[in-house]
Amino acid sequence: MTLAARLRKGWCPGALRPMPAEDGMLVRLRISGGALSSRALRRLAEAGRACGNGLFDLSSRANLQMRGVSAQSLPALTAILAELGLLDEDAEAEAVRNVLASPLVGLDAPIDAGPIAQALEKALVGNKDLHGLPGKFGFLIDDGGALSLASVPADVRFDYCAERKVFIVGVGGDACEAECLGACEPGAVVDQALRIARAFLDHGARMPETPRRMRELLQSCGPTAIAKATRLRPAPPPQKARSLAEPCPIGPIRLGGGENLCFGVGAPYGRFDADMLEAIARGAEAFADGETRLTPWRAMLLPGGAEAEIEALKTHFSMENFIIDPQDPRLAVAACPGAPACAQGSTPTHADALALAPLARLLQPEGVTLHVSGCAKGCARRAATPYALIAKDGRYELIVENAPPNRGAAQGLTLSEAQYMLESIARQARAAREVEHR
Ligand code: SF4
After folding, report:
1. Whose CA is nearest to atom 6 of ligand 1?
2. What angle do CA 425, 428, 430 make, to 5 degrees?
């Protein structure tokens, strides 16, 4: 099967099923609970240099992707991953274990959802009938802590409601767009997740074309079919009031409003190199509790630091080309690896995103405002951004969300032309904001 065919079928790379790319094989590591010890981080940095090209991408599902691995170096890398306990029994078990939990799970929320996430991973691996779930089919557990996963889409989601001490169960999207199926006690999360997954497989098998995501199934047969398979109590829809704004976990973050801190460090477009991983490991050992948490927002967290250490941490990371300022304009842009690393990409997305970052911040004062994508697949980000540049044959299409009909897109743009158009939009946006504030 060609790479293009694999991508079309939603083929999902893993440690046991690396994906060929233009810069070598891509090895995606699905880190259980998103937690890595500093020893593991150092070892991965060494492995990245020895077996790959030393580059790592942090994905929008908080997976760490090692790039540039060769067929010759793959066995050595596999041995290192096994030594670190990062290898599953087989590729099917690895693929089905697609559970994203809150990055600070066990540290700042009204409930410790870590054991629930682990039990769900174990159950998915242990129930072989579920190994037929599509590669990208994912579960999410939001413990209600400060770094909300509300804006992260998932096929099956459990969002904790502290007032009622239950998880709200939703399917097919972020916390707002997901269809709410009801509520369940924390102890019932695993059972309900398995029921929903089986219902997806059963109903999907009856469709003319097997769906790859829950949203596709819902469009065909609606939420009732899935809801019937569960034994959930009816519940009002999830708290629409809970902010869908994406967290920006950069710099010091106070845990649970108390004395304990964690420190967030980002990298442009989620691209870390081996030196950066080692610097994070050193930071975690010297200033925090030695552990690093991965997030779906292109940042890693060092929990356990103290207020008095913040300045030292800032100095440590300012030397390593990290993003430690929440106002850094590079946080305004999402970009996939693009060309030359990816065969589908026709533009150098990272370099273009860097050139456009100051402009992207002018478009809107906060959040991710611009998505620069090497092709229409849009790997860097599923959630919509107000502006997107989608490459095709070396040129960009500019898409403006919520634009009036026939004014939402311009095609065949060079980088300079796209820049010019975005500058003009930014000027208009600034003028509108000024009028609003008068
Ligand atoms: S979106 Fe980017 S990384 Fe994904 S396939 Fe297209 S060019 Fe490659």
Report:
1. 375
2. 110
Mutate to test the pocket of ligand 1, among 3, 342, 395 (most ligand atoms within 8 A of CB): 342
Place of tokens 């019932």: 188
- Measured in Å, residue 136 CA sits from the centre of ligand 1 at 16
E strand map for 322-405: 333-335, 370-373, 387-392, 395-400
User: For residue 255, is pLDDT > 90?
Assistant: no
Q: Give the model's pLDDT for residue 36.
A: 97
pLDDT top residue among 311 and 321: 311
Predicted model pTM: 0.91
Q: Which atom of ligand 1 is nearest to the CA of 375?
A: 6
Task: Write the pLDDT tens digit of every residue in 146-156.
Answer: 899 999 999 99
Give the per-residue pLDDT at 241: 45
Q: 3-class DSSP state for residue 12? A: coil
Tens-place pLDDT, residues 1-22: 344 444 444 557 899 999 999 9
Q: Where are the domains of the chain?
A: 110-143+149-246, 251-319, 331-436
What dotted CATH number matches 251-319? 3.30.70.3340
pLDDT score for 404: 61
Domains 110-143+149-246 and 331-436 share a fold: yes
Q: Which atom of ligand 1 is nearest to the CA of 391?
A: 7
What CATH architecture is 110-143+149-246? 2-Layer Sandwich (3.30)
Q: Does domain 331-436 have CATH number 3.30.413.10?
A: yes
* 257: DSSP letter: G
Distance, CA of 408 to chain centre: 27
Distance, first Cα to last Cα, the chain: 60
Confidence grade of residue 259 (pLDDT, cut at 50, 70, 90) = confident
Q: Which residue ranges have their beta carbon within 6 Å of ligand 1?
A: 336-338, 342, 344-345, 373-375, 377-379
Whether pLDDT at 409 is above 90 = no
Could you tell me the sign of the dihedral formed by the alpha carbons of 376, 380, 386, 392, in that order?
Answer: negative
